Amino acid sequence: MSDFDLDLRTVEEHIDEELDIEGSIILGMLDGTTPPEEWLEAISKGNVLVLNVEGDVNELASGFARDIKESGGNLVHFRGFLLVTPPGVDVSTDRL
């Protein structure tokens, strides 16, 4: 066997640094009653939104969609829900 030195403590420390993820998954209703600024604030804090769409998604998301896209976030409309993610959190649609 060859000499292979693996310091698992060092690896674990780096993994913990890389996984410093903050935020939550927020479930909500996209029905026009919540001001767009509240959705933008939630995304700016690293949260992911899963919003049940009650109406026309384009009209209801118009107050925040452009800002999310321009900041590098994602919006995906899927089966009556709008998933909104902050920059750095991708939504994979490969299995659809």
From TrEMBL:
Organism: Natronorubrum texcoconense
InterPro entries assigned to the protein according to its UniProt record, in alphabetical order: DUF5779 (IPR043931)
Record Pfam families: DUF5779
Protein name as catalogued: Cell division inhibitor SepF
